[in-house]
Specification:
homodimer, about 325 residues, alpha+beta, Beta-Lactamase, Enolase-like, domain 1, 3 domains, 5-stranded antiparallel beta sheet, 14 helices, elongated, DNA-binding
Chain lengths: ~325, ~325
Amino acid sequence: MLDDRKLEVLRAIVEDFVDTNEPVGSKTLAERHGLGVSPATVRNDMAALEDEGYITHLHTSAGRIPTDKGYRLFVDRLSQVKPLSSAERRAIQSFLEGAVDLDDVVTRSVRLLSQLTQQVAVVQYPSLSRAEVRHLEIVHLAPNRLMLVLITDSGRVEQRVLELPAVVSDDEVSQLRSVFGQRLHGARLVDAPRALSDLPEAAPPALRPVLTSVLSVVLGTLVERPEERIAIGGTANLTRHALDFPMTLRPVLEALEEQVVLLKLIGEVNDPTTVHVKIGEENSVEGLRSTSVVTMNYGPGGLGVLGPTRMDYSTNMGSVRAVARYVGDLLAGS
Amino acid sequence: MLDDRKLEVLRAIVEDFVDTNEPVGSKTLAERHGLGVSPATVRNDMAALEDEGYITHLHTSAGRIPTDKGYRLFVDRLSQVKPLSSAERRAIQSFLEGAVDLDDVVTRSVRLLSQLTQQVAVVQYPSLSRAEVRHLEIVHLAPNRLMLVLITDSGRVEQRVLELPAVVSDDEVSQLRSVFGQRLHGARLVDAPRALSDLPEAAPPALRPVLTSVLSVVLGTLVERPEERIAIGGTANLTRHALDFPMTLRPVLEALEEQVVLLKLIGEVNDPTTVHVKIGEENSVEGLRSTSVVTMNYGPGGLGVLGPTRMDYSTNMGSVRAVARYVGDLLAGS
DNA sequence: ACTTGGCACTCACGAGGAAGGAGTGCCAGT
DNA sequence: ACTGGCACTCCTTCCTCGTGAGTGCCAAGT
């Protein structure tokens, strides 16, 4: 059905359209790309491609533009992830190496990605659930008030304030500290419930009420529904491609304000080691049906970029992959 | 020069224009607002107002619209901060009371403000410099690596990782901990340099090298250039008023991505107890010359909203003031 | 001295129409 | 299976013209 030349025509259409943002006609296409056939032949191929749903045209006498299905085929079979230039690699490296803490790494990654791709960039903080506990600090804020500060191996710091039903002494707090410290140090957060399950019985009776409160906070807010954080940047780039958005930017901007949506974007990844692309209607999020998302995991979290379906997939996939790898290495090494 | 009726005409123009987003003409104005004079009279007043620079028109046969100067006069002399309805007050209260930690307070405030005003909301995290130290924790991550976790009275938590030139023992770390703890507890961060100035001499010689490193990080990164954080939300609201932006949203979105710019917006406040308005050209930030900003301090930080100059100043000022007060109370009480 | 009705003038805006042109689909020829 | 030719579609651009909202100014009224 789709012989090699038809695929070549599709590739040419996608590349031309991405480049010029104008529906591409048979004549210009046959000229510009060295297909070695006449416009008429290209027209026939185009008609076939249109029958299969890979391209459309807005009205009878307009050029063709790729459909979501067309982009999909292009990404899957016709394009390759484009490696970055060595200059770009160096830029990434030096830019990310300057980061002083996790917040900084994430912030810089967002900037970097949005500047490299000229799209909206999204970076998830390392997920808590898969993280290892490096330190759990219990701070005695007030007689009946504690603050838990959890530090993970990826450098993330989470805190929770906790009101106790009864007053506790400094001494009891340091007992708590050592008990939790011993049990949790080096444990992964998902394993915490198991590691802590027999705590109440094992502890001295006097400590139990406090211990149970603290335990429930640790398990409840840190393990069961760990707070996922996400950084976003480069929203201004949306206006750069404003022409590509059929209606307005409104729904897109609205969707991008929802943490849940962003997590969904980044989280829906099957294979954690490759770049992943969602195109237009493939997005489960209403309001992002006219956008494409390129994502990848860097290990304990994900990152990616979002832009119009008419984007340079090869390059963007390259950038996302490169940044994901650098960030992954950076976090693993620290 | 500007008698009462002229001022009344200006108010009517501003209110009408904010309401309808259409240049307002003498006839409709004389009808809709009970001015008790004929259109011709209104026209004369308009001509006077235009001579003074309070209003303009885009072309000869179009209605009048307020200039920045006109809005300024309106805000200063013709409008009052509009108190919120009791329903709104209750909504704010219940919405903010649900917050569990500082991050949550800030995030919720941003949402709240952007929803109340239908504009872009900006909330600064409580500034570190004015904050009191509640706790400084020193965590021994690795033999030659420490993490400092600073907790302030406003609930803010800052961390810094610190590489030491030499290996330190757990014992030394706990000494450090107690030394810093004693000196800093309850001190304001701006007073830290004084409180810590004689530390190296007072400490046991063996501890000095480490102590100096830690000291320099505390002073350098936490005191001298404390990291200001800012949360922003409701960007999608910009598209709601897209018609009001002469060019595109681009420069506005770009400006909003700069932390520095946001800080400038919120920071340039003289009187910390009242609502503050910057209108159009009054904004020192290029790119925000077509926007107005309504801000107020809530105590250790500031917050505000940003929108087109054509905004409902009375209501927005009311919302900003109300939220600032609630947030201020909330943080002071915790 | 201020206010008012009248009146000519300006100018954005939308409708209607024609010319231009890019691009298609189809067919017959090689 | 490819190609050139050709009629057709229909978007785009440009023009014109009528309409109406709104103004500025003047002379008359209070």
